[in-house]
Amino acid sequence: MAQEHSISENWKKPFFLIWAGQSFSLIGSMLVQFALVWWMTEKTGSAAVLATATVVSILPQILLGPFAGALVDRWNRKRVMIVADAVTALATLALVFLFWSGKIQVWHLFVAEFVRALGGTFHWPAMSASTSLMVPEKHLSRIAGINQALQGILGIIAPPLGAFLMGLLPIYSVLSIDIVTATLAIIPLFFVHIPQPLKKLEGVVTPRQVLRDVREGFRYLASWPGMLILLGMATLINMLFSPAFSLLPLMVTRIFKGGVMQLGVINSAWGAGVILGGLALGAWGGFRRKIYTSMTGLIGMSFGTLLLASAPASMFFMAMAGMALSGFMNPITNGPLFALLQTRIRPEMQGRVFTLVGSLSAAASPVGLALAAPVADLLGIRFWFYIAGGLCLLMGLTGFLIPAVRLLDDLPPVAGAEVANEPALASVQATPSD
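^ that's the sequence the OP posted. Answer follows.
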């Protein structure tokens, strides 16, 4: 049974009801992140504190992601999202009380960041795997494009909105907004049916079963050479581009002799590009072969990066154009690729596979940062951008040439939600509350 045939024709209303709630929650999360980073910057002025907060926020995804994905594949995904949103809101509520009472300490923020990140580690694969069961295959690339555009819009709006609110309200009031938005995300989940994949996972979940599920996820990925190659590409891209954004302030100040205004402008160019690229993908949907769209986007990102790297010191607008082009091509690269994963990976495997991809990509960021610093000091800042652009160009071209990658679209779509009776599923699934 093809995925698209098992999805209701009236899929838009329930899906976008949930999507709207989750979008509000994302706004609250971004405001919390901005407020906490600014508070730590003002109170400590310590780079070590900020670096520790960053590490704490990515550790759950790196270390626990594969196990969270295995549990998501066993549990009821609607309940996972409700519990994850609730736990995140409770962590914020604890911070609200600590700030209000004047008892806040830096280590409290680290604990809250870890708990909030842990909630996200469960929520993201549950939402992503549910999307593939609620949205017809032909629209998945468009939904991915809309999500990318939303991220770009919020990336531009959230910082100034957070700064405005921080100047107007005490920090505990700003944090309280996240509790409200989390509630708006949770409420629709009680009223919308989220299909579950047909699977036979009975009994109490044990650590041994979870480890077995994680190993099964690794074997599943390893059995598809094309998917394995794409995972390697995604990991390498993350390793290249995370340090590039970290080096961007130095590029602006040392090469273009700019200040904070120029840094803000060039970051806005990237954000504007992401928004336009996401909207373009949402309207267009990409080529018939999703992998062709993704590889075209990757090549476009490489051209944008190389344009940025080669911009003369007197042509800052050329660097802006390169950032805007890279931003535009980012959703064109990621959207179809994610849609391909959603339609070619079995629904009951998606949680663990998505988190494996996320964990490996996240782990690549600190590796890239460790490599980029000495390379930039020894060979210059531009050199890292040339490396990133050149390798992305090579990967994009190679994707068209490797049959295992090029022919991924020819694999049959997986079956969609074959069981719609949620109470019946509850009898064979463990849940977070169990």
